[in-house]
Amino acid sequence: MSQQGRFFLLGLLTPIYDLLTMPIAALLAFGAYQLTKQAHVSETTPEETEEEIEMDQMKSPESVVSLLSVDPIEFEFGYGLIPLADANQGGDLLDRIVMIRRQLALELGIVIPVVRIRDNIQLQPNEYRLKIKGNEVARGELLLDHYLAMSPGIEDDSIEGIDTVEPAFGLPAKWISEEMKERAEMFGYTVVDPPSVVSTHITELLKAHAHELLGRQETKQLIDHVKESYPILVEEVTPNPLSVGDIQKVLANLLREKVSIRNLPVIFETLADFARMTTDPDLLTEYVRQALARQITSQYVVEGQPLRVITLSGKVEKMIAEGVQQTEHGNYLALDPVVSQAIIEAIAMQIEQFPFQDQSPILLCSPAVRMYVRQLTERYFRHVPVLSYNELEANVEVQSVGVVNVE
């Protein structure tokens, strides 16, 4: 018989006062019930508990909100490329991306966000793609058991392989086998392994889209970094007369044309000088570019060699200057479509005739129209830099190899 039952009978069958024994029996009965209930709960398996927790989390509003987040940079690949990222199989893609982020911090002065790497069964086995802010910007294909060979300009028929295109720069190339590698190198081919191919592609894509990765939050971090060493300078620029958004637009304009923003003290000195006169980000960008003349010069000039450029005739510059419309929201170029097309065709003709000799073509014009020339050519000649005379140091030897003219 249970302990609580004994106390109950003790109150009924003995002279002991029943009002004293019955509450004790009831208390013991309640305690036994609670112990039984707790034992039953303890018998629940951990798996059932975890499932209940997961179900509760799925029902919570926070579970839906978490689905709204978009990674700044995503690198996805098919299952055939898993060895690239798997350290147990000798993959070093993670280490290469760390080095890419360090390289871009030194070259462009921007901290690239962490790259999310994952496999995607929806892609072809040897396919990969890069997404920025949820949108695909490029994709490519790798053959892990091959090498990518790019010819020095003269094709050799004895080099057999699978014709393809080098993804970073769009050059014709071939996937060749291990046995063909040594022969290709003997004939002057540039031979690259698959991990180097994809890391170069990622590097060039991040450079091209760096201005998209610099938002207000990232700009605020850069401002705080400068403020640690130059507090007075930063106070003179922001929050008055320039907001964080204004500074972000100037820095993004520089990055869009592959001008490094690492020298932030010089950039802020220029903004402090000219922001009292105008808050137009495009005009401020032009002033900053001129202040960075030494940096821009070293970016394009090879020591001991003249800088070969394509210039614009006075007539073309005048046509562009007359096509500038001034509004309260800033200035923009509004050329007649026929005139725009004629200028674009004239520039294309000069670029085709440009004597490369290890140098890419450069457009050189006066400071007054540089910004508008860039607006006109950006869609058609995105990789052709547009410089002004004020962005080159005075001691640079400039050689004009072509003049853009329109009849």
Describe the structure.
- The chain is an alpha/beta fold.
- It has 4 domains: 1-69, no CATH class; 73-208, FHIPEP family, domain 1 (Glutaredoxin), CATH 3.40.30; 214-291, Helicase, Ruva Protein, domain 3, CATH 1.10.8; 306-404, Rossmann fold, CATH 3.40.50.
- It is built from 18 helices and 14 strands.
- The protein has helices at 3-13, 18-42, 46-59, 61-65, 82-85, 93-108, 178-186, 194-208, 210-213, 216-229, 231-237, 244-256, 264-274, 281-291, 293-300, 314-322, 337-352, 370-377, and strands at 73-77, 115-119, 127-132, 135-141, 147-150, 162-165, 172-176, 190-192, 307-312, 324-327, 330-333, 363-365, 386-388, 398-404.
- The strands form 4 sheets. It has a 4-stranded mixed sheet, with helices on one face. Strands 6-7-5-8 form a 4-stranded antiparallel sheet. A 4-stranded parallel sheet has the order 13-12-9-14.
- The longest helix has 25 residues, at 18-42.
- The chain is globular and about 60 Å long.
- The chain starts with a helix and ends with a strand.
- Mean pLDDT is 85; it is low at 7-18.
Beta strand %: 15-25%
What is the arithmetic mean of pLDDT?
Answer: 85
The domain count comes to 4
- Can you tell me the overall shape? globular
Assembly state:
single chain
Q: What's the total helix number?
A: 18
Most strands sheet: 4 strands, mixed
Count of β-strands:
14
CATH class of the largest domain: Alpha Beta
| Class derived from helix and strand content | alpha/beta
